[in-house]
Amino acid sequence: xxxxxxxxxxxxAPQIVPRPAAVATGPILEGRTLTKSYPLxxxxxxxxxxxxxxxxxxxxxxxxxxxxSGKSTLLQLLGGLDQPTSGxxxxxxxxxxxxxxxxxxxxxxxxxxFVFQSFNLIPLLDVSENVALPFTIAGQDTSRGEIAERIRxxxxxxxxxxxxxxxxxxxxxxxxxxxxxxxxLVTRPALxxxxxxxxxxxxxxxxxxxxxxxxxxxxxxxxxVLVTHDSKAAAYADRVLVVRxxxxxxxxELGRRRDHDAATLIGRLAQLGL
Amino acid sequence: xxxxxxxxxxxxRARPMRTGLTVAGVTLGVAVLFAGLATNAGIETAVxxxxxxxxxxxxxxxxxxxxxxxxxxxxxxxxGTPGVAVVAPAFERRTYLGAEAFGPGDxxxxxxxxxxxxxxxEATLHDLTLRAGAALSGDGPNDALVNATLARxxxxxxxxxxxxxxxxAPVHLRIVGILAGDGPWAGGGGRALxxxxxTAQAAxxxxxxxxxxxxxxxxAAVTDALESTLLDEPYVLSSPQDIGASMRASTGDFASxxxxxxxxxxxxxxxxxxxxxxxxxxxRVRELGLLRAxxxxxxxxxxxILVQATAIGIVGSLLGVVLGAALAAGIAAWVRTVGAVALGxxxxxxxxxxxxxxxxxxxxLAAAIEPARRAGRISPVEALKARLDxxxxxxxxxxxxxxxxxxxxxxxxxxxxxxxxETAVVRAFLVYAVLLVAALVVPFILPATxxxxxxxxxxxxxFEERLARASLLRDRSRAALTVGALTIGLAMIVAxxxxxxxxRNAASAWIADVVPGELVLTSIFPxxxxxxxxxxxxxxxxxxxPIGSFALAIDGVRTDAVAxxxxxxxxxxxxxxxxGGRELALAAIDAGGAMIxxxxxxxxxGLELGKTVEATAADGSVLKLRVAGITxxxxxxxxGEAVIVGWSDAEKLGVAGADAFAVxxxxxxxxxxxxxxxxxxxxxxxxxxxxGRIEGAIGQALDRVFGLFDVLxxxxxxxxxxxxxxxxxxxxxxRVREIGVLRAAGMTRRQVWRSVxxxxxxxxLVGAICGVVAGLAVGALMVVLAGGxxxxxxxxxxxxxxxxxxxxxxxAMLAAAYPARLASGVSIVRAVGYE
Lengths: 274, 835
What we know:
heterodimer; A: 274 residues; alpha/beta; Rossmann fold; six-stranded mixed β-sheet; 34% helix; disordered N terminus; B: alpha+beta; 4 domains; ten-stranded mixed β-sheet; 22 strands
């Protein structure tokens, strides 16, 4: 919807030739004919109507679509937060869509990371404690060895070195989201899921978050699935899946680019009538 | 306005669990309060009816001192006093029935009271209502009436012949009637046999009178006249009011403690109401803000909360009155006797019910005022903000706490039992004040105490403990209120444990400290040592020391006294002297003209060492007694500790013989020797009682009363536990998003569940720690205020402390069951980021 307005201000020549993703060794994540229905009063609402997709290791994929399109539902199924009505989710060769609650929890702790739109942090823990949360939950000692090193490393990656002992309420909204990104990355998950991570932020602050995500993908080959309705955020991805009415309407290959220019994407979206 | 009230009702219905818990809190608080009122009204009624039965229509009673009783001269003087219309003399003794029925080795049967009356005179002042048979007539010297208890226990019927064991040969009596009740002889086992005065006196070869009841139209004038004419022998003159007052005094402590626990339960209930309504305000902040934006006034929002409070107060208090009546019936059945009063059914009066209802509703409303005002202050802007930062108003809450405390205190004053004397009231208020201070201190020591309380949990589940403690401390004043309610409930349990332990210790120390022997042979009538030859020659017996208890008029004040052999005490090493030389004092009482005074009586009556007092001897002469020593304590008498005199003085004072004999065995005495002694003693109508049994009997009576107090205090703890359910539930509601994040980051449901249970455990342990500290202080205070010694007062009642700790933690963790399930069931998808 906003994409239609943006077509008029497309600037610079579109980059048509996509660069291959940094690592491309088969899918790390697959969704097979996923459906999800919710009961709503007497009727049921079909949030997803048979979606299939695959994400390659090291790839940065954006799920884009207007609100109510089913993109967040899709992310919840892919991340093991919720179970599909039918279909399968396969993470690193393992079917994760029918796991027990405990196994799904362990999966979240060890192999995936999440960044939500807001309320990502535990207010009573400081920055480094929030980042260390997955280890703490697992009962690991976070104060020494490789774990401490990893925590320092991700805090540096999101550019928060020196603020390790700040409490969330002493941080700006952008800094808080960067802590959330650091926490999602600290376990070196197979996949990082980000659901509208910039939704509550202004343009400049939002860019900081997206830069941090992109750097982790570019420098550390982190696989990322980003949900957004903002084409400027989606333009950071290698590939954009356009979700509408519970199905994938189109796939837009952007390739790995340093400039994150949104013009190509906006142009393609306009062609789709979005 | 009407619309908003309807919304308030719907708000209550929308959260049935929370509303139910709060109503339950009010119900329990009011129930304990009302049970106390009904029990105390029952005590009042029991006192009134006991007095009425005892004195009938008599306006005055002259009671004898000592065994010899009042002489015929005294009776004549009383009868001749102007204004005296009727005199009813009576003679009472305790003895056994049917001497042949039991062999020498059998335990003695329960004794009976033989009451000799003048049938004609007695009938004018006392109604002896009969269930069967006929009343005593003047011309049947061997006719007898039995009271209901004796008839039931011994299966006696009209026409039966019974043998009366007396000094000489048994007397055969024919039962002509059975009393409908127990008459004035309900105390002391309740078994009584009523015979003509001359028969009773002849049976015991006595001519004295136990008491003379007086019917008169001008009691004041007769009192004055008697005080100037009755000079020859000691007596006690009392009116029905005096008798009632002395009975009531023995129930005062019980009544004021019950009222105190009632107040505490209600106070705990107020905590619960406050927290619940505060929760409603926080939870509905958006809704209330929206209403403000739509034009609702502050007053309307305030009344929204007050309407809810009123509903809770009315329903809770009504249920509380019903439950309280049931509880009171249970109390009466459990306690049976309070002080000198046999407790009948509780008395439920409309006035008491209305008072309990009103207090329940007013306390509920008082607890609601602060949250209601907070609701009124919510601004529309605040409510519509994305993030809700509600400032915690600790000072306001402390103010609220003090206000509710004062209110409950005033309510306590209004319902104060008549029997409670001033010191009991002061004690109750001091205790109440200490508990309030404890509750006020909790918010300030909460973080430090929570860290200590968290230690045991952190050893097991470190991360969950960290989360739990942080969650507990997030809203410190809410947590403090929750902990505070628990603290005062548990403090009461510890305090009562301390007081109970002190009473038991004091009782056993008392007996063991004073009685010069290991076994006591008790007699129901006075005996001389010469009657005990068989006992003295029993193998294994080292010594037998006679003890006689009686009443003494020292400078006109009735004082309990015992006659003992000073030499026996000296040899046995008993009695701890505070003042005066032990050897000298014990020799002095044997020589005569001296007495040993317990420190309590010395302080009460100003009896200093060396001071000489005057007592009236049996022949009317004056006997001078010098205070030769002051001891820590002596033997218990019916009304207090007894002064000790030697036997030579006791005889002058009219003591006919000993009613107890302390027996000491030689170290080589065998079990067979002891059994032999018991058998020999019973053959001469002496009941052997080991010191341990005496202590045990005292302990049992104490256990009964303190058991009741514990149950009532437990109700307050349960109310506090209901508060924990509410607080934890609210903490979970507020943390739903956070729990979602934790779950997304890999926290299992079990870990979430554990963190809530650990939060409850820490709450419980903090409450228990504070409760134990406050309880020990309150217990020591209660003991010291009651005249106990500090070193005993500060002894730690370990069983009560352990019970409070376990109870606090276990109840709190049980209370976590629902909120923990709620928390572990949080859906990540719904909790995080999706509104």
